[in-house]
């Protein structure tokens, strides 16, 4: 009878270790995914900022800057350039 009790305890300990291992692995994976998403969002934000900076730098040279959005083209130019004329 004592032998069966030890086997049951052993099985329960193994199940507990497996469950804890799974939970730790799952939480680690979630943390990695959050970190990757944060890095991606920061990269996208930086890209947007750089695109705006480039548009402004081109627009202040008093030359039209064409912007294509879907099937529409818009030409940008700095207002100061229009006021000079």
Q: What percentage of the residues does DSSP assign to strands (E)? A: 5-15%
What is the strand arrangement across the widest sheet? 1-2
- Rg is 30 Å
What is the overall pLDDT average? 91
Order of helices and strands: HEEH
Q: Fraction of residues in helices?
A: over 70%
Flag low-confidence runs.
Answer: none
Q: What's the number of structural domains?
A: 1
Distance between the termini: 102 Å
Total beta strands:
2
Secondary-structure class:
mainly alpha
Q: Supply the number of helical segments.
A: 2
Largest sheet: 2 strands, antiparallel
Shape: rod-shaped
Overview of the structural elements:
This protein has a two-stranded antiparallel sheet. With 85 residues, it is mainly alpha-helical. The model has no long low-confidence stretch (mean pLDDT 91). The N and C termini lie far apart (102 Å). The chain is rod-shaped and about 100 Å long. The protein has one domain. It contains two helices and two strands. Helix content is 75%, strand content 12%.
What are the key terms here?
85 residues, mainly alpha, 12% strand, rod-shaped
Task: Give a topology summary.
Blueprint: H1 2-59, E1 65-69, E2 72-76, H2 79-84
Antiparallel strand pairs: 1-2
Quick recap:
The chain has two helices and two strands.
């Amino acid at each position: 009878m004592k032998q069966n009790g030890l086997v049951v305890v052993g099985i329960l300990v193994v199940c507990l270790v497996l469950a804890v291992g799974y939970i730790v692995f799952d939480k680690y994976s979630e943390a990695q995914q959050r970190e990757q998403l944060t890095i991606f969002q920061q990269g996208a934000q930086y890209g947007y900022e750089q695109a705006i900076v480039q548009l402004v730098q081109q627009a202040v040279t008093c030359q039209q800057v064409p912007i294509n959005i879907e099937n529409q083209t818009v030409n940008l130019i700095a207002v100061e350039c229009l006021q000079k004329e």
